[in-house]
Amino acid sequence: MRSFRKGAVLAVLSLATLLSVGVATASAHGRPGQGSGNRGLSVSALVTRSATELGITRADLKQAIVDSANTSIDEAVQDEDLTADEADALREDAADNLRVAYSLSRTRTVAANLGITTAKLNSGFRAARKALLLAKIDKAVANGDLTEEEAAARKEALASAILPGYKPAGRAFSVYAAVRGACNPEG
């Protein structure tokens, strides 16, 4: 079982490295902050808008996310799932890459770091997601990618949609989620 956990942790480190390289590559190609492009919302834009919705600074929210990621990393070291060197590399990636920090962070620790409830954190992120998606729809109309009618239909669907809070359900990614998934493929 120990080798499964070690392999999962190495997979997390590899993912963090790939994300770092991917962001650097996207930046080099004139697409900084684009995140997942047209398929989703960039983490950077989501954090920026969420900070506004929560009435806090982006820097405070980013620090709470990085601190939460570091807590997850520290717990993985304590559980002997990561070596000190692996943890140092992962901490550095989390400090340099918001997408990595976000992926390793946990809702409850981010909320605690901010001194707010998880409900308030989730509400802020839901409102931010909605605002960013509305802006994407408007931009698509302005670019001629959507008609006014298509945009109205999407906005109507968005009005009744239940959006995820801090982390999309089933997509939360942490050191522990990777380890659990590697050790127990059925869930």
Describe the structure in your own words.
By secondary structure, the chain is mostly helical. It has one domain. It is built from nine helices and no strands. It has helices at residues 2-28, 43-54, 58-78, 84-96, 98-104, 107-114, 118-142, 148-160, 175-183. The longest helix has 27 residues, at 2-28. The chain is elongated, with a radius of gyration of 18 Å. The two termini are 16 Å apart. Mean pLDDT is 78; it is low at 1-39 and 171-187.
What is the SS-derived class? mainly alpha
- For the termini, the CA-CA separation is 16 Å
Q: Could you list the spans in which at least 5 consecutive residues all have pLDDT below 50? A: 1-39, 171-187
What's the mean pLDDT score?
78
Helical residue percent band: over 70%
Strand count, sense and barrel status of the largest sheet are:
none
What is the N-to-C order of secondary-structure elements (H for helix, E for strand)? HHHHHHHHH
Overall number of strands: 0
Number of domains as seen in the coordinates: 1
Specify the number of helices: 9
Rg measurement, Å: 18 Å
Report the sheet-strand fraction: under 5%
Oligomer: single chain
* Gross geometry: elongated
Question: What tags apply to this protein structure?
Answer:
187 residues, mainly alpha, disordered C terminus
What's the gist of this structure?
The protein is mainly α and 187 residues long.
Blueprint of the fold:
Elements: H1 2-28, H2 43-54, H3 58-78, H4 84-96, H5 98-104, H6 107-114, H7 118-142, H8 148-160, H9 175-183
Helix pairs in contact: 1-4, 1-9, 2-3, 2-7, 3-4, 3-5, 3-6, 4-5, 6-7, 7-8
